[in-house]
Amino acid sequence: MGFYLFSQVLVPRTDIGVVSGKRKRVKREEMSALQQQAQLLDISMEDAANSAIVVKAFKECEERELGAMRALRAHNRNKRDGDIPQEGATFCLCHKPPQPNMLTCSLCLDLFHSGCVPSSHRSKVKLSNEGRFLCPSCERSRRPRLETILSLLVTLQKLPVRYD
Which of 16, 49, 99, 149 is deepest in the core (most CB within 10 A)? Predict the structure, then answer.
């Protein structure tokens, strides 16, 4: 799994179902927190300063993410009829036909060849007591529980701050 900013983890994804997620990247160090928030929520800089607009944009992004994930899951379910893949259907990151013993992503329901998935993802499947697998694309959707975030925020508030 790559590393993401805390805000990237918390904000709903906009790239669900996008095969090539290539975008022009701007160095994070060159962007202010407000610019990053505006970019992640796809709103203007002026709107990013207004908390009511940010909350509304977040809710809209959340709805779009859920809708896109439902559509992607339905598409991936339709690629196979039960356990039998449709003729000509492709799966995995490599977009090749299925083989026996493929991994099924718990979120997007697509099938993945074990050789195409990075070993860190395969080992997570073996270590997981639930046997769940998240593909590299869906790994970004894995968010911490709200209770965890709240406890971290409370701990952050208790940290002493030194002003120079």
Answer: 16
Question: Could you state, in order of their start, the residue ranges of all structural domains in the chain?
Answer: 27-78, 83-158
Residue the block writes with tokens 């090539």:
20
**CA pair distance 112, 98, nearest whole angstrom:** 8
Domain made up of 83-158: CATH architecture: 2-Layer Sandwich (3.30)
> CA 161 from chain center: how many Å?
33
Return all residues near 108 (Cβ < 8 A) that are at least 6 apart: 16, 69, 72, 73, 76, 135, 137, 138
Amino acid at the residue 107: L
* Alpha helix ranges (H) inside the chain: 6-10, 33-41, 45-48, 51-78, 119-127, 146-158
pTM of whole model > 0.70? no
